Amino acid sequence: MGQAALSRFSVDLALGGGRGSGGVRRSRTGEAADALVAWRARALGRPAPVGGAAYSLFTLTGGEDVVCLPSPRGGCLTNYPLIGSVCVLGGVEVAARNGAAVRILAGPAIHQVEGGTYTGGFVARADAGTAALWRLSLWGGVRTQLLPRYGGETYSATALLVGLRVR
């Protein structure tokens, strides 16, 4: 497809898996989902600023274990929390006229942590997509949700994602 057929506007949807870090927790491995709406400042074919908004989710694989693993703080260790993030992202995209692209994005986020607690933080992602066929591309990438101050500690959830991009 030529440059005129592809839009500077894109919608990405992805699923994947990852691992959480931070806090005194167990069961840190989980699933991830991501939705991004983005817009390029210039036509395809050269590097350009790109901005967008995204919703990112990290949740655990499986549920509570019946075995109590002792916590150094007393009681039992709890599982890593579910994290949902709404963010505004900005960065750069290098895209060929056929839609193949590499981009890096980062920005501030509001994270909702399991139990209804809200906290500020950041989301960063890097991805690469194939050439577009009928406006669709496959893409893969990595995304990190960072919560610098949750419960007095720093938490993060990093996921590998695979998805579809519509341009």
Give the helix/strand layout.
Elements: E1 9-21, E2 25-26, E3 29-40, E4 48-60, E5 78-79, E6 83-95, E7 101-113, E8 117-129, E9 136-150, E10 153-166
Parallel strand pairs: 2-5
Antiparallel strand pairs: 1-3, 1-10, 3-4, 4-6, 6-7, 7-8, 8-9, 9-10
Put the structure in a nutshell.
The chain has 167 residues and is mainly beta. The protein has no helices and ten strands.
Spatial sequence of strands, sheet with the most strands: 1-3-4-6-7-8-9-10
Estimate the helix proportion, in percent.
under 10%
Total domains, how many?
1
User: What is the averaged pLDDT score?
Assistant: 87
CATH topology: Porin
SSE ordering: EEEEEEEEEE
Number of strands: 10
Number of helices: 0
- Gross morphology: elongated
Account of the protein in words:
The protein has strands spanning 9-21, 25-26, 29-40, 48-60, 78-79, 83-95, 101-113, 117-129, 136-150, 153-166. The protein is an all-beta fold and 167 residues long. The protein has a single domain (3-166), classed as Porin.
